[in-house]
Amino acid sequence: MSVRHLLAAAAVAVLLGFGLAAPAAAHVLAQPGDVGAYTLTAGRVWSLAAALLALVGVVLGGLALARSTGRIGTGNGTRGAVVALAAGLVAMVIGALVVAAAKGGPGTGYGIVGGYLDLAVGLIAMVLGGLALARSRRSHRAG
Question: Any idea what the Cα angle at residue 72 is, between residues 70 and 75, rounded to 5°?
């Protein structure tokens, strides 16, 4: 089996896993609506974890972008770009699950504000990672 076939099979398995896990995650994220402002519910914990992952993706994407333009270090930044893309994608998937499972608005304990934050910061991480990856590939072709 070639590496491309292995990667394609792994991607299909991950997407299928997310598809099957979405109803279960929505059930776990569902909470009763009467919680305190500082209570850590499942929705808030998931959205906080995804926000931290997205923030790591933004930092790594920024560093990879700086490396690809030659500002920092001598590396090409490809690894950081790929990790930023993956972290942004995972954060956006978790954020979308949190938003989809929320039965109420802000302050109800479902983590909907964090879910929207995950979507925004995850998108930023993916954009930075994509830009860094494009620049590093362009510099490899030219050099």
Answer: 70
Domain ranges, residue 76: 3-142
What's the pTM value of the predicted model, to 2 decimals?
0.72
pLDDT in tens, 112-131: 999 999 999 999 999 999 99
Q: Whats the size of the chain, residue-wise?
A: 143
Angle at 48 between CA 30 and CA 41, to 5 degrees: 35
Residue type at position 94: I
Q: Which tens digit of pLDDT belongs to each residue from 21-50?
A: 555 555 555 544 567 777 888 888 999 999
- Exposure string (b/e) for 36-54, b if CB count within 10 Å is 16 or more? eeeeebbbbebbbebbebb
DSSP 108: S
Q: Which residue has the tokens 């930092």?
A: 59
Determine the Cα–Cα distance for residues 77 and 3; give it in Å rounded to an integer.
22
C-alpha 124/C-alpha 113 separation (Å) is 17
Q: Tell me, what's the pLDDT at 2?
A: 54
Provide the 10 A C-beta neighbour count for residue 26.
14
Domain count, the chain: 1
